[in-house]
Amino acid sequence: MRTSKWAVMAYVMITLFGILAALPNILPASVQQQYSSFLPAKPVTLGLDLKGGSHLVLEVDAAGLRQARLNTLLDDIRGALRTERVPTSSARIAGDSIAVKIADQADRDKVMPKIQELAAPVGTLGFGTATSDIEVTTADDTITIKLTEAGLSERMTAAVDQSLEIIRRRVDQVGVAEPLIQRVGSDRILVQLPGLQDPTRLRQLLGSTAQMSFHMVDTSVDPNTATPPRGVDILAGANDGAKYAVESRVAISGERLADAKAGFNQQTNEPIVSFTFDSQGARQFAEITRDNVGLPFAIVLDGKVLTAPRINEPIPGGQGQISGNFTAQEATVLSALLPPAPCRRR
């Protein structure tokens, strides 16, 4: 049986096209530039199966996430007890919940609304009934506060989103082309870096905790100076390429952030990021905003300034908004980066 000459020509054309497409992978860069008008623009990206590289799976620490929320709640509840002149020793963590034992009925009636105000709403999709991240019940002289599964699930999702953004920023420092970073299941992140044979640097980058902190910006110092005064650091912007003269002293640690969400200003419809501190962070934030109205306040992640909004007015409640010239996507990324998210390598 003879093969058609058209079939032979098709086989030859396919073979030549395959060779032409593969040439950029074996030719030096200088030769690729010289014949760039004839060769494909980019070489074929090789995955781990052909090029080798590093493969890591990271897992969000669900137990740590739960414990962090319980610790924050306990701190806030004790603050409410102090306000109502009830001994703070009445509240303690008991397993996966918080028990507040108050013998006097009048004191329980005063404290109960304060505790219920600590509930954070959990977003629902579609037409589901709105719920909260805690469940408050009473039995005899004890008020019990439990974390709801809906609240934990939303915090887990937020923690994974935040970890994805931090990992992408840190992988960029390695300089690997075409990295694969994606969510796997509800609490894991897959990281594949083709061509990176020694994963030591990657483990150092991804294994370290994100260093989030809040600093005042020293407006009296030129950010372009080569020799800043003692107590001032010149930091680069993470997104805008600008430089900032930031006080070395940490005004508020990022560990004091309890939550952050992206949204829109109801009056101007511009993208914003709303954030909430825990009780200790709220007190620090109230003092800082009261004493520094009109001055910029820098949010620093891993040694770079994410944003430096101006303090428009004193903020006593521990809740604030970050507004600026960023898009809705940038606001979402920023809200994902702000609160600390426990993540570990499997």
In a few lines, what is going on in this structure?
The protein is of the alpha+beta class. It folds into 3 domains: 1-44; 63-147, Threonyl-tRNA Synthetase, Chain A, domain 2 (2-Layer Sandwich), CATH 3.30.980; 210-337, Gyrase A, domain 2 (2-Layer Sandwich).
Structural notes for this entry:
The protein has 346 residues and is α+β, with helices and mostly antiparallel strands. It folds into three domains: 1-44; 63-147, Threonyl-tRNA Synthetase, Chain A, domain 2, CATH 3.30.980; 210-337, Gyrase A, domain 2. The protein has helices at 5-22, 29-34, 48-51, 62-83, 105-116, 149-174, 200-207, 279-291, 328-337; strands at residues 53-60, 91-94, 97-101, 121-122, 131-132, 134-139, 142-147, 180-184, 188-194, 212-216, 232-236, 243-247, 252-253, 257-264, 271-277, 297-301, 304-307, 319-323, 343-345. The strands form six sheets. Strands 8-9-1-19 form a four-stranded antiparallel sheet, covered by helices on one side. The chain has a four-stranded antiparallel sheet with strand order 2-3-7-6. Strands 13-10-16-17 form a four-stranded antiparallel sheet. The model has no long low-confidence stretch (mean pLDDT 78).
Name the descriptors.
single chain; 346 residues; alpha+beta; Threonyl-tRNA Synthetase, Chain A, domain 2; Gyrase A, domain 2; 3 domains; four-stranded antiparallel sheet; 19 strands; globular
